[in-house]
Amino acid sequence: MPKMIFVNLPVEDVAKATAFYEAIGFAKNPKFSNEHASSMVWSDAIYVMLLGRDFYATFTPKPIADARTTSGALYALAFDSKADVDTITEAAIAAGGGEPHGPEDHGFMYSRAFEDLDGNGWGPFWMDPAAAENGPPEHASASDGSAQ
After folding, report:
1. Whole-model pTM?
2. 92 and 146 part of one domain
3. Which residue of 4, 30, 62, 142 is most buried, as measured by CB atoms within 10 A?
4. Contact, 27 vs 41, CB < 8 A?
5. What does the alpha-carbon distance between residue 104 and residue 40 come to, in Å, rounded to a whole number?
6. Burial of 112 (0-12, 13-18, 19+ CB in 10 A)
């Protein structure tokens, strides 16, 4: 079995959260979805499980954070282009999500941020393939001995 990741997110309304994630490009896997949870597929290895808060509570004795007021994690997704980063962010905003800050362009990397309907934070980004291979420009020049 390949290595996979399943991100479990507590949500107020499973149906509304499902519609949001479908609007930004995730596909619902009906085999693992019901009124308490939606299995949302990003790729063959990445799934987001949208769990109603009561159902989510069955997996942990801890209090469930409200992502609208508390940040516990930020989820980053890599894209092939800056345009793809803009596309998913604009789709998230159009579907009712928020944008906590504007675009960040560092030359070798471009990112944006959006929050889903429940405040869960996502950071779509594009990175220049050379930087992905060698590190950011300042790191590459320091490691090759050319930085003074």
Report:
1. 0.88
2. yes
3. 142
4. yes
5. 27
6. buried
